[in-house]
């Protein structure tokens, strides 16, 4: 199928009717539905479906940089580029394919990208939908440069929530975080689960590989499992910032929360020929869920 501006999209489905829609624009997951047809990712009612920017929602990919930088645009260029379907992907572990519906995408830097970030790479992205409806993403970045390079990365995951003030995140308690609202100053989280009553823009560092986002009102929990991604970004723009974002409704901060599996504090460094892998798996389970130790 094609999306609103002619960019190709790929739809994955399970026999029971769960689905994932991925756009070649940015390799962005645009939609993920369970077998009842319920949407499991947030999309803003004001989202703009027009390159070069990613639409506000789903799962944009932040690479080769998370946040602002000197020569690159905010969150890097990968989310703004047109990816290709990878007809010949490098082999993965058989458990990454068994019983799953998947698509492999590929991004290589253009001449223009190399002017701003002079490092040749191959970025292979597998998006897959398990038979149980779980969404998985595997990113593999290979250095095909003569010199080493470093990058940061995030799966910028927009989750829909019923009421932000009723949501809590488990698995980040007692961790250190860098606060983007205070010049990246480092703080330590207290012992309680994370709850929300104002703007939050933080990078929790060295987090466990499983965290849970509990939506009390919807009686459902997002379980986020990650590998190769030590950090977790937690972002909600709250009222004031929402009003400054053209592609986001003034009140929509109440119904969304970004929780990103990421590698930010310590950038990933690849020597020539080396490859990095970052995995994300998200499932939705009913009622409460306690994160693994
Ligand atoms: C978050 C950042 O992950 O992304 C915020 O921590 C930023 O600082 C937000 O505002 C949205 O970024 P963008 O570029 O998609 O508007």
Automatic annotation (TrEMBL):
GO terms for cellular component: cytoplasm. It holds the Pfam family Aldose_epim. Coiled coil: none annotated. The keyword Transport does not apply. Substrate binds at residues 56, 74, 79. It is an enzyme of class 5 (isomerase). The keyword Isomerase applies. It catalyses: alpha-D-glucose 6-phosphate = beta-D-glucose 6-phosphate. InterPro entries: Aldose_1/G6P_1-epimerase (IPR008183), G6P_1-epimerase (IPR025532), Gal_mutarotase_sf_dom (IPR011013), GH-type_carb-bd (IPR014718). This is glucose-6-phosphate 1-epimerase. It comes from Kingdonia uniflora.
């Amino acid at each position: 199928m094609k999306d609103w501006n002619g960019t190709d999209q790929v739809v994955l489905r399970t026999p029971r009717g769960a689905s994932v829609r991925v756009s070649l624009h940015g390799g962005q997951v645009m939609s993920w539905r369970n077998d009842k047809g319920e949407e499991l990712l947030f999309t803003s009612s004001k989202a703009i479906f027009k390159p070069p920017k990613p639409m506000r929602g789903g799962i944009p990919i932040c690479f080769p940089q998370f946040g602002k930088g000197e020569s690159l645009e905010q969150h890097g260029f990968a989310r703004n580029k047109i990816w290709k379907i990878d007809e010949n992907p490098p082999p993965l572990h058989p458990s990454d394919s068994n019983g799953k519906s998947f698509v492999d995408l590929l991004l290589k830097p253009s001449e223009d990208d190399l002017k701003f970030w002079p490092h040749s790479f191959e970025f292979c992205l597998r998006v897959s939908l398990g038979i149980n409806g779980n969404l998985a993403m595997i990113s593999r970045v290979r250095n095909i440069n003569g010199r080493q390079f470093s990058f940061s990365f995030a799966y910028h995951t927009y989750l829909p929530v019923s009421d932000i003030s009723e949501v809590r995140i488990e698995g980040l308690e007692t961790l250190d975080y860098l606060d983007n609202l205070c010049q990246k100053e480092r703080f330590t989280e207290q012992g309680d689960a994370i709850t929300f009553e104002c703007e939050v823009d933080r990078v929790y560092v060295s987090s466990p590989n499983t965290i849970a986002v509990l939506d009390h009102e919807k009686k459902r929990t997002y379980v986020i499992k990650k590998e190769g991604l030590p950090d977790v970004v937690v972002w909600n723009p709250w009222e004031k910032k929402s009003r400054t974002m053209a592609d986001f409704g003034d009140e929509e901060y109440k119904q969304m929360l970004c929780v990103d599996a990421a590698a930010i504090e310590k950038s990933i460094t690849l020597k020539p020929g080396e490859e990095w892998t970052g995995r994300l798996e998200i499932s939705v389970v009913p009622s409460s869920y306690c994160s693994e130790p």
